[in-house]
């Protein structure tokens, strides 16, 4: 869950981001340790970058989210935007909220409750297939504010039979947040019988059992940015890509990178989806010229791959083949100092201020790691995981894509499905529409195309 996270207050007017607790990476074998350290994170055997990130964020004892049970903030009362004078008054209010919250981050669905959740509920209400009972899955439900807001809206605006027969399932890896969600949704007695929390890793296929062949909705609000990523490296413009692994120097207990030929399945799949290997192909003459140029003017390349997203979508498409998706996240992050395409921000918050690190290896349980979402790539991964065969891969196939997809700016989505007047201040300033220029919402629904 995101917006106004470790960037507060430096990027307050353009970047609102907060953490969520959802784990969808590969679980590591854990070792006992008094505190999170480089030895605990890596041990004596090198690990892939995604496994290092997963441990740094989600290890049950030493991970960033595990150590900060109050990382997801909850507002006691909704903000009355119509009573605020304008931009300055809004920033002053947020400053006060964050000083009181100490380590907590606030999600957009929390800052703009109930209006943000109501916009999502309206989008579902307009497009859902009501020939079957409505079923909604939310990945990483935080404090339960989104679930309660959606169910409140459906109770008031959906046909009675839709609300009465609906099911809302939160898939949440944090036991403390799972308990909080039950408390939040349970504030409305009629919601409670329709809501349940499954405390598990959403990317673990075994947790989904036989799956669900009926139409359903999957909501992922600011989940993708905290999913583990992998890193690949190339010494120059012509050298082949290499997997990046993290190892510990036995003498100094310091972390460093090591490079291996690409063999990992998730990394290979991401590279194929991106068509990265095409960059090294060409005629013999062109290859020779490029090789010489690369040796004279070497330019190392680094590329971050959303392998955690790929794994999650593989599982979701396998378990819920008729699902529709609503996912929101950052489309870019400002002032990222870590090198590489789609590189993350690694940030620590102390005394209400954020401190950005220059290396992801500095994350040792005390830092948030969050990535921008490449929505063009997200769409390609979504199509790939749905089983769509690209025309150039199978020229005999006349099947169309199995998903209809749409990416909207947050402001465009809320203007279409939300109630923007509810988040407008007295002078016309609207933080929900004006402060989310670097966030987008992705919609994906199944078509009637068959295999």
From TrEMBL:
<dbReference type="GO" id="GO:0005739">
    <property type="term" value="C:mitochondrion"/>
</dbReference>
<dbReference type="InterPro" id="IPR029063">
    <property type="entry name" value="SAM-dependent_MTases_sf"/>
</dbReference>
<dbReference type="InterPro" id="IPR003788">
    <property type="entry name" value="NDUFAF7"/>
</dbReference>
<protein>
    <recommendedName>
        <fullName>Protein arginine methyltransferase NDUFAF7</fullName>
        <ecNumber>2.1.1.320</ecNumber>
    </recommendedName>
</protein>
<comment type="similarity">
    <text>Belongs to the NDUFAF7 family.</text>
</comment>
<dbReference type="GO" id="GO:0032259">
    <property type="term" value="P:methylation"/>
</dbReference>
<dbReference type="Pfam" id="PF02636">
    <property type="entry name" value="Methyltransf_28"/>
</dbReference>
<comment type="function">
    <text>Arginine methyltransferase involved in the assembly or stability of mitochondrial NADH:ubiquinone oxidoreductase complex (complex I).</text>
</comment>
<dbReference type="GO" id="GO:0035243">
    <property type="term" value="F:protein-arginine omega-N symmetric methyltransferase activity"/>
</dbReference>
<keyword id="KW-0496">Mitochondrion</keyword>
<keyword id="KW-0808">Transferase</keyword>
<keyword id="KW-0489">Methyltransferase</keyword>
<dbReference type="InterPro" id="IPR038375">
    <property type="entry name" value="NDUFAF7_sf"/>
</dbReference>
């Amino acid at each position: 869950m995101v917006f106004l996270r470790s960037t507060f207050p430096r990027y307050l007017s353009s970047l609102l981001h907060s953490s969520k607790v959802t784990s969808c990476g590969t679980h590591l074998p854990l070792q006992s340790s008094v505190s999170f350290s480089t030895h605990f994170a890596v041990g004596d055997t090198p690990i892939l970058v995604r496994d290092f990130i997963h441990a740094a964020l989600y290890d049950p004892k030493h991970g960033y989210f595990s150590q900060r049970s109050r990382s997801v903030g909850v507002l006691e009362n909704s903000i009355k935007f119509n009573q605020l004078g304008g931009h300055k008054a809004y920033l002053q209010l947020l400053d006060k909220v964050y000083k009181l919250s100490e380590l907590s981050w606030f999600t957009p669905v929390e800052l703009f409750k109930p209006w943000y959740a109501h916009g999502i509920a309206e989008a579902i209400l307009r497009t859902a297939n009501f020939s079957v009972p409505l079923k909604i899955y939310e990945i990483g439900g935080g404090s339960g504010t989104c679930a309660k807001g959606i169910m409140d809206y459906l109770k008031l605006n959906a046909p009675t039979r839709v609300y009465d027969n609906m099911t809302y399932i939160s898939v949440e890896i944090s036991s403390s947040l799972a308990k909080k969600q039950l408390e939040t949704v349970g504030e409305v007695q009629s919601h409670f019988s329709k809501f349940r929390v499954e405390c598990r890793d959403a990317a673990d296929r075994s947790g989904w059992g036989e799956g669900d062949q009926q139409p359903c909705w999957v909501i992922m609000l600011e989940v993708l940015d905290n999913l583990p990523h992998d890193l690949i490296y190339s010494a120059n413009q012509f050298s082949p890509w290499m997997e990046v692994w993290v190892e510990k120097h036995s003498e100094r207990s310091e972390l460093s990178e090591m490079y291996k030929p690409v063999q990992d399945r998730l990394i290979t799949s991401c590279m194929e989806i991106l068509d990265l290997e095409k960059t090294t192909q060409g005629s013999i003459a062109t290859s020779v010229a490029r090789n010489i140029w690369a040796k004279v003017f070497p330019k190392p390349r680094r590329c971050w791959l959303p392998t955690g997203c790929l794994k999650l979508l593989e599982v979701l498409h396998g378990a819920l083949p008729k699902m529709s998706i609503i996912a929101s996240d950052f489309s870019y992050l400002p002032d990222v100092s870590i090198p590489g395409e789609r590189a993350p921000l690694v940030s620590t918050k102390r005394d209400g201020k954020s401190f950005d690190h220059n290396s992801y290896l500095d994350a040792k349980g005390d830092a948030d790691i969050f990535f921008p979402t490449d929505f063009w790539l997200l769409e390609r991964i979504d199509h790939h995981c749905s089983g769509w065969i690209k025309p150039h891969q199978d020229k005999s196939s006349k099947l169309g894509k199995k998903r209809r997809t749409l990416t909207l700016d947050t402001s465009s989505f809320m203007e279409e499905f939300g109630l923007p007047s509810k988040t407008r201040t007295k002078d016309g300033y609207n933080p929900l529409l004006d402060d989310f220029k670097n966030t987008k919402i992705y919609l994906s629904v199944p078509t009637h195309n068959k295999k």
